[in-house]
Write a structure and sequence with these properties.
Elements (H helix, E strand, L loop, with lengths): L12 E6 L2 E6 L6 H16 L5 E5 L9 H9 L1 H6 L4 E5 L3 H13 L6 E4 L5 H8 L2
Parallel strand pairs: 2-3, 3-4, 4-5
Antiparallel strand pairs: 1-2
Helix pairs in contact: 1-2
């Protein structure tokens, strides 16, 4: 899985597929704008992948905070936001506050049925949300 955005992704972001689940792992939120745009392209790529049923974003080990300009990609870019409403996406967080903030953004954009954050590991509750099992 090599793509044009790969060269711009931060070294702290990795991705892979297991079966029909697309995994993205971030270990730092301290990224520049080019890296943030590449991360958005990665998410769009995952959503368009025909074999992918759902996405799991693991931010439990991520340090720092998204720079404001990078956060705006997720919060205000309508083209980006609309591309994310095709498959379910779960985000694993390391804190209840981060989980609540992420879920607030999902509600704000009308995506709560597609996108949900959890302050857990990849457990049965997360699998139930993503796969309905």
């Amino acid at each position: 899985m090599s793509n044009l955005f790969d060269k711009s992704l931060p070294k702290t972001t990795s991705y892979w597929k297991e079966g029909n689940i697309f995994f993205i792992k971030n270990t730092s939120f301290i990224v520049n704008m080019e890296e943030g745009k590449a991360m958005a392209e990665l998410l769009i790529f995952a959503m368009k992948d025909k074999e992918t049923v759902c996405l799991l974003i693991d931010n439990r080990e991520a340090k720092g905070a998204w720079p404001k300009k990078v956060s705006q990609i997720w919060e205000s870019n309508d083209a980006y936001i609309s591309s994310l409403q095709s498959k379910k996406m779960a985000t694993l967080t390391s804190s209840t506050v981060t989980m609540m903030q992420t879920n607030r953004l999902s509600r704000l954009h009308g995506m709560e049925t597609f996108s949900k954050a959890f302050n857990t590991d990849f457990n049965d509750e997360v699998k139930e949300f993503l796969l309905g099992k």
